[in-house]
Write a structure and sequence with these properties.
Blueprint: H1 3-8, H2 22-37, E1 42-43, H3 44-58, H4 67-72, E2 79-83, E3 86-87, H5 94-99, E4 103-106, H6 108-116, H7 120-132, H8 135-145, H9 170-177, E5 190-191, E6 194-195, E7 198-202, E8 217-221, H10 222-230, E9 233-235, E10 241-243, H11 252-257, H12 278-287
Antiparallel strand pairs: 1-4, 2-3, 2-4, 5-6, 7-8, 9-10
Domain ScoMcrA-like DNA sulfur-binding: 4-148
Organism: Actinacidiphila acididurans
Keywords: Endonuclease, Hydrolase, Nuclease
Length: 305
């Protein structure tokens, strides 16, 4: 069985680039439990909170429920559900899943192949990470689902699918466009002539068909790249920095490096270089940015003022 191809083809609701990583997150969670425990059922009532947290952290900003993938993943041939009354899922309703004692697990054929092929679990996990999430989130997502992977960031090949090739020159083009400084904070560190801690950040994720073009990228420092991919930071229609109201940081460092960015105009690109295309900016604002933006930093009044 081509399990890599099967997980690569998980059926997901999608329209106009809307993110729906519910099933991939559930499979990653199940693979993590399998790696640690060797299999066994996952009772919905016992894992519901874990799955809610995963969706809140790595899913879309809109309200959602883990009941959806728990039920619908069965149709993809990698997952099965039974209840206290027998085999089969009771539906995608939270109440029905809880009250019926619904429990899910990887199908026996997949579990057997995972035991027989030591590298299969890693290939499945890498495929899901590559297809649905940016590289900056892979390490922490593995930790969140309890996966221990030796992963160098090299995309896992998917049989029967033509691999998109990243443009190795795009980083340099983006850094030149933004004059080797973070578009959010202005950081421009170097060792000698070599910039350090500066990265080309995709606005619309490469994993979700974002192109390797300057108008789909920002030059960001490592910290702000991570926060941009997490949805803490975004770009408004006025091309100003947005900071999510969900972000909490009380230290001077958190305020100086994040909160005070709210409402700040982007630094760059230099004249003659394209700024972020509106379609890519709007995609990130709608699919990645978390919650509502804070007011501009200069309008925030100190507590008690």
């Amino acid at each position: 069985m081509d399990w890599v191809g099967r997980v690569a083809g998980l059926r997901q609701w999608s329209a106009n680039g809307v993110r729906a990583p519910h099933k991939p997150l559930l499979v990653l969670y199940a693979l993590g439990r399998f790696q640690r425990e060797g299999g066994g059922e996952l009772v919905y009532g016992a894992v519901e909170e874990d799955l809610k947290e995963l969706l809140a952290e790595y899913g879309p900003g809109r309200k959602t429920t883990p009941a959806y993938p728990f039920h619908h993943l069965v149709s993809d041939g990698v997952w099965q559900v039974r209840t206290d009354h027998g085999s089969g899922s009771p539906g995608s309703g939270v109440r029905e899943l809880r009250e019926s004692g619904a429990a899910g697990q990887l199908v026996p054929e997949l579990a057997a192949d995972l035991r027989r092929e030591p590298d299969l679990l890693g290939r499945l996990a890498r495929t899901l990470l590559d297809l649905h999430f940016p590289p900056s989130l892979h390490g922490e997502l593995c930790q969140a689902v309890g996966l221990d992977l030796e992963y160098d960031g090299t995309p896992a090949p998917v049989p029967g699918q033509r691999q998109r090739q990243r443009d190795p020159a795009v980083r340099e083009r983006v850094l030149i466009a933004y004059e080797y400084r973070c578009a959010f904070c202005g950081y421009d560190g170097r060792i000698g002539r070599v910039p350090v801690g500066l990265e080309a950040a995709h606005v619309r994720w490469w994993a979700l068909d974002g192109p390797d073009d300057v108008d789909n990228a920002l030059c960001l420092c490592s910290l702000h790249h991570k926060l941009f991919d997490k949805g803490v930071l975004g770009v408004s229609a006025a091309y100003e920095v947005m900071v999510s109201h969900r972000f909490v940081g009380h230290s001077p460092a958190a305020r100086d490096q994040v909160v005070t960015l709210a409402g700040r105009p982007l630094l760059g690109p230099q004249p003659g270089r394209p700024r972020i295309a509106e379609g890519h900016r709007a995609w990130h604002a709608g699919q990645v940015f978390q919650g509502d933006p804070r007011p501009a930093a200069d309008t925030v009044r100190p507590a008690g003022a």
